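Suppose you are handed only two things: the residues of a chain and a line of SMILES describing zinc ion. What would the bound structure be? This form records exactly that question and the answer produced for it, so the two can be stored side by side and reused later without any lookup.

QUESTION INPUTS
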Amino acid sequence: MKLNFELVPDSCWYSNLRSELPQEVWDKIRKKAYARAGGKCMICGAPTSRLEAHEQWEYDDKNGVQRLKNVVAICRPCHEVIHIGRTQLMGREREASEHFMKVNGCTYAEYRKALGEANEKHRERSRREWQLDVSELPKFM
Ligand SMILES: [Zn+2]
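ANSWER OUTPUT
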């Protein structure tokens, strides 16, 4: 899937870079991601003047390490799909499911299946503590 859910484990104490970094550092990272995107969402390719920065993490399930992989600039509809839990709470799941199906060229059943799998993975990963690895961070500054 080109666009998929990225649910950050509940147990993570440092899941959101922007709340942990000094404002000017985050601004620098954010603006660099926007410049790389060149006015287009880095996931779906839609042209937009309103990009949002998103941190992508990878999980080493064996060693319990959550590693910063990339900071991308994406459109709001893609961002709402990625953080589907929050989007559901805001009552915007229908819009998000439509965007997911359009970008991935899939059916509603496939959307539900992917969501079920993401929720299962999230439950599993939320049962433990994660060590954060942000050694790649300077690359994005
Ligand atoms: Zn997008």
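WHAT STANDS OUT: The mean pLDDT is 93. Residues 17-135 form one domain.
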